[in-house]
């Protein structure tokens, strides 16, 4: 059973001489409950794929299917109950003048929940923050705590598919370990499917079951983590990437 | 042993707050020769503050105190603000952490590099333009013509950082302070940027202070490493021996990294010991 299927996805920005083809004919499939990684250098289009799925990059063509339903250009609210995204920079993705409570309560209200108070409390417990953080503002939180809030916000609509765009690259290694452990626990506890973008092969190796290697907007290779660990990449670019990261 | 380029003795950075004085850097001493010196630690450990204090970039009410910060034997703390301006950029250059906040959002990349070049060199606009293109090429930017026309928000993080590095290479400084210069870049580009910096250290005899939270990178790239925790240096070691480091903090950081060759279900989480921050700073002088 596949949770996410991408067929011949093209994404572009700008036009005429400034047109950039960020993603060219990408196709891959992520099974339900699977954790799938996208790796590649900056500008290779890995984050753009996530943005095209959520509708943040409006100029795309091809087929995106989430849980058997084709994604249209205009996404219904039900789509965002199913698919949520966690962004790279926890400093930029939270509103500086909204408390943690306001951020989570607003998300819950938008998704039509009524038992908001109990849900906010549960979300904070789920991401290991606890109630004392509920009325804090982002500037009163460390980077790791902010990323936990961002994860709690993404979990609020009870999604099945979580898109993770470099969730730990702005964090210290010690905090990265905590967040990666948290994500692994949440995936198990909530039966989530992950699509994770990272430039760090060891993070993808730790978190994912399979991964796609991207270069210049194209997927050059899809392999499983065992092949990654055994350094058995077939495409010369993936081999180069592996060697550079060891 | 050659005279060190930079000699820092007992550096403190203090910020008065409502809860009393907060010491961001507490009694740090080290020297920098013509070498690649790494400073590693978590955010809040004072590594960036150490870099900024050298250039006296700590704004009031923050205070920089030290026995001395000597550049080629001249104490920077005795210089006037006007004299410091000749040091910054010309003799000691700094790449900041985040290209998003370091580039002017309403100026094209090309105009910014040309401006930086003409500030330091008496050159015509077309000369500056060809130099700017060359610099973009030197930091491996594909299609520099298009990048010259683009605005910073149109660049990815990695490209932004390479543009910053291109700009700071222009005045040919003696010392480069690089504050997390490659943390926004991915491994293959990281290598290229490090090679550029490496070449500068070797060919021009520059000193490099490389501030990073990435232990593997520092172990690989630098000659010597200072490990900072809570404003102090807890350990100093040769970079190639970093993986045999003794201090429990360094060990904890190393163990929290995921590794491709040894898969684990859960990563180790660092347990902090209050004694680490109370112990006095280790000297990084040679």
The number of E-state strands of chain B comes to 11
Whole-number mean pLDDT of chain B: 85
Shape of chain A: globular
Name the strands of the widest sheet of chain B in spatial order. 7-8-9-3-10-11
Q: N-to-C terminal Cα separation of chain B, in Å?
A: 9 Å
How many helices of chain A? 9
Largest sheet of chain B: 6 strands, mixed
What does this protein structure show overall?
The complex is a heterodimer of chains A (246) and B (286). With 246 residues, chain A is an alpha/beta fold. Chain A has a single domain, classed as 3-Layer(aba) Sandwich (Rossmann fold). Helices cover 37% and strands 27% of the residues of chain A. Chain A has nine helices and ten strands. A six-stranded mixed sheet of chain A has the order 6-7-8-3-9-10, sandwiched between helices. The radius of gyration of chain A is 18 Å and the shape is globular. In chain B, strand 8, helix 8 and strand 9 form a beta-alpha-beta unit. Chain B is built from eleven helices and eleven strands. The mean pLDDT of chain B is 85. Chain B has a domain of 73 residues. Chain B starts with 5 loop residues before the first strand and ends in an 8-residue tail after the last helix. In chain B, strands 7-8-9-3-10-11 form a six-stranded mixed sheet, sandwiched between helices. Chain B is globular, with a radius of gyration of 19 Å. Chain B is an alpha/beta fold. The relative contact order of chain B is 0.17. The chains are: A alpha/beta (246), B alpha/beta (286). At the A-B interface, helix 6, helix 7 and helix 9 of A face helix 7 and helix 8 of B.
């Amino acid at each position: 059973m596949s949770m996410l299927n991408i067929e011949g996805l093209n994404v572009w920005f700008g036009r005429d001489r400034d047109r950039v083809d960020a993603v060219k004919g990408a196709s891959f499939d992520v099974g339900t409950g699977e954790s799938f990684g996208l790796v590649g250098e900056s500008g290779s289009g890995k984050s753009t794929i996530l943005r095209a799925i959520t509708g943040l990059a409006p100029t795309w063509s091809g087929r995106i299917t989430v849980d058997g339903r084709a994604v249209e250009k205009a996404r219904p609210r039900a789509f965002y109950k199913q698919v949520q995204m966690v962004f790279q920079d926890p400093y930029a993705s939270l509103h500086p003048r909204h408390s943690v409570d306001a951020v989570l309560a607003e998300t819950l209200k938008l998704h039509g929940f009524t038992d908001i108070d109990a849900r906010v409390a549960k979300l904070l417990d789920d991401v290991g923050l606890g109630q004392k953080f509920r009325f804090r503002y982002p500037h009163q939180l460390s980077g790791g705590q902010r990323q936990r809030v961002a994860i709690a916000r993404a979990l609020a609509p009870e999604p099945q598919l979580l898109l993770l765009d470099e969730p730990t690259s702005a964090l210290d290694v010690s905090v990265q370990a905590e967040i990666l452990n948290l994500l692994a626990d949440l995936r198990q506890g909530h039966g989530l499917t992950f699509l994770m973008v990272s430039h760090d092969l060891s993070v993808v190796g730790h978190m994912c079951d399979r991964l796609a290697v991207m270069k210049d907007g194209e997927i050059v290779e899809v392999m499983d983590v065992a092949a990654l660990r055994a350094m058995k990449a077939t495409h010369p670019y993936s081999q180069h990437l592996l060697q550079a990261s060891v | 042993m050659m005279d060190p380029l930079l000699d820092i003795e007992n550096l403190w950075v203090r910020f008065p707050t409502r809860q009393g004085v907060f010491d961001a850097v507490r009694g740090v001493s080290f020297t920098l020769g013509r070498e690649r010196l790494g400073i590693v630690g978590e955010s809040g450990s004072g590594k960036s503050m150490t870099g900024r204090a050298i250039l006296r970039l700590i704004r009031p009410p923050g205070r920089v105190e030290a026995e001395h910060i000597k550049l080629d034997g001249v104490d920077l703390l005795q210089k006037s603000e006007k004299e410091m301006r000749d040091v910054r950029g010309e003799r000691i250059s700094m790449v900041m952490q985040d290209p998003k906040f370091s580039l002017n959002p309403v100026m094209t990349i090309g105009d910014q590099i040309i401006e930086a070049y003409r500030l330091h060199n008496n050159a015509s606009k077309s000369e500056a333009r060809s130099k700017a293109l060359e610099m973009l090429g030197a930091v491996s930017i594909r299609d520099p013509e298009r990048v010259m026309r683009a605005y910073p928000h149109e660049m990815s993080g990695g490209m932004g950082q390479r543009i910053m590095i291109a700009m700071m290479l222009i005045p040919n400084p003696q010392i480069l302070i690089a504050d997390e210069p490659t943390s926004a870049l991915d491994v293959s580009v990281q290598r290229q940027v490090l090679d550029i910096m490496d070449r500068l250290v070797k060919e021009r005899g520059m000193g490099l202070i490389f501030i990073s939270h990435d232990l593997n990178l520092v172990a690989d790239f630098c000659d010597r490493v200072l490990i900072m925790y809570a404003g102090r240096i807890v350990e100093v070691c040769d970079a190639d021996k970093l993986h045999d480091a003794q201090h429990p903090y360094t060990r904890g950081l190393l163990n929290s990294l995921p590794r491709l060759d040894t898969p684990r279900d859960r990563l180790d989480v660092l347990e902090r010991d209050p004694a680490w921050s109370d112990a006095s700073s280790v000297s990084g002088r040679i």
